[in-house]
């Protein structure tokens, strides 16, 4: 029996933000074919280094892994957006340091997940929806540093990629600036179903964007 397992953070573990409505895992279980199972191992608040602990809880019969993590790593660096810089070069160099640290952590996480030798898909970090226009602009621009790492790791390894920036593309997809709503969770679940129930790509990456 096929069995999809969700790893990562509150993009998947969003029950606390939907007011009793269906969260991502409930949407997923409702949308998958009857012969499928789905398990939530993702944990609200997790960072990239925390996925290793989630791997210990993967069911023995898991057949597909989907990972969405990185947003909380980015939040940990968000104070950088308030810092000044003497030059553009200085600001870019600071972002480059952050990128290198995240790349090291994210790459180690991907290698640990792939060691399970199961079909695996990765997710980008979506754009979030901050009400202040300047804050939103800074966050979206800063997240490109993290998403560059994620997309490079996916494409270098021929892994499928769910681009949540394009999947959650409406204000109503967000319960607050950084968590998916019932509507957003439904879109995410539908994209996972589209990916895992299709013939799995063996030699190249595919991108699910809607």
Question: How would you sum up this structure, described in words?
Answer:
With 210 residues, this protein is an alpha/beta fold. It has one domain (3-208): SGNH hydrolase (Rossmann fold, 3-Layer(aba) Sandwich). Helices cover 42% and strands 13% of the residues. It has helices spanning 24-31, 51-55, 71-76, 88-114, 133-156, 164-167, 182-196, and strands at 3-8, 37-40, 64-68, 120-123, 161-162, 174-176, 179-180, 207-208. The strands form two sheets. Strands 2-1-3-4-5-8 form a six-stranded parallel β-sheet. A two-stranded antiparallel ribbon has the order 6-7. A hairpin with a 2-residue loop joins strand 6 and strand 7 (179-180). The mean pLDDT is 93.
Mean pLDDT over the residues? 93
Number of strands: 8
pLDDT < 50 runs, ≥5 residues:
none
Separation of the first and last Cα atoms: 27 Å
* CATH fold-level label: Rossmann fold
- Percentage of helical residues? 40-55%
Number of domains: 1
The main sheet orders its strands as 2-1-3-4-5-8
CATH homologous superfamily classification: SGNH hydrolase
Query: What's the story with the biggest beta sheet?
Result: 6 strands, parallel
The helix count comes to: 7
Order of helices and strands, N to C? EHEHEHHEHEHEEHE
Described by the principal axes of the CA atoms, the overall outline is globular
Portion in beta strands: 5-15%
CATH class: Alpha Beta
Radius of gyration: 17 Å
Helix/strand-derived class? Answer: alpha/beta
The CATH architecture category equals 3-Layer(aba) Sandwich
